Amino acid sequence: MENFNRKKHWETIYQTKELKDVSWYQPTPQTSLEFIKKFDVSTTSKIIDIGGGDSFFVDHLLELGFEYITILDISEAAIERAKNRLGAKAKSVKWISEDVLNFIPTEKYDFWHDRAAFHFLTKQEEIDSYVEKANSFVQKNGILVIGTFSKQGPKKCSGIDIKQYSEESLTNCFEGRFQKLECIYVDHLTPFEKIQNFVFCSFRKL
After folding, report:
1. What is the pTM of this model?
2. Enclosing domain of residue 189
3. What is the rounded CA–CA span in Å between residue 30 and residue 2?
4. Looking at residue 66, which CATH number applies to its domain?
5. Residue pLDDT, tens place only, 67-101
6. For 11-20, 48-57, 61-70, 85-94, which range has the lowest pLDDT when averaged over its residues?
7. How many structural domains compose the chain?
C-alpha cells in the first residue's frame, strides 16, 4: 500500500457503485441526527461533515433549517452525486473536494461531524494531523462527533484497511484538546444485511 492513491480509490468507488451498493448507505443517519438534537445545535451554527460524500446527513440538516453547512469529501464524484440529488438545494451548501489531511479551513466550526472517515487514517502521523486540524478549527466549546468501526466491527472497508477503535482509544486520540461527553456503540445494518458495529464519541472543545 506504499503507493496507494487514496483519491483515485474513492473516485473509482463513487464512479462505479450506486448509492445503495455501498456498505455505508444510510437513508436516515439516526445516530448523527440524535447528536444534533442532544446538543441543541443552533440552525445558525457552522457545521462541517468530514467525508460526507453523498450521504443523506446533509439532506436532513437542510430539512431541519440549518444555514451554514460544509461538506468535505476527497471524491469529486461523490460530491457531484449529492449535488445532483439535492438539485437547487445544493446551492445552500458549501462543497469542498479535498483530502481532509490537505484541507486548510478558512473558518472555525461549531459542530464537526465525521462518520466513517477518521478510521481510514491508519498511520499515526495522519491521525495526529487530523486531531490537530480539528483542534485548530473547532470553536471553543464547539462539538466534535466521530464515528468509527469498533473493535467488534470490520477490519477493512471498500477493500482497504481501517483502524478500529474502542471508547478508550478514540477518547485518547483527542485527550487534552477535547473533553469527552459521551460514547455509544451502534450496529449499522448494511444493504447486504450485514451488521457493522460502530463506536460514536462526542467531545467538547476545551
Report:
1. 0.94
2. 6-205
3. 36
4. 3.40.50.150
5. 999 999 999 999 999 999 999 999 999 999 999 99
6. 11-20
7. 1
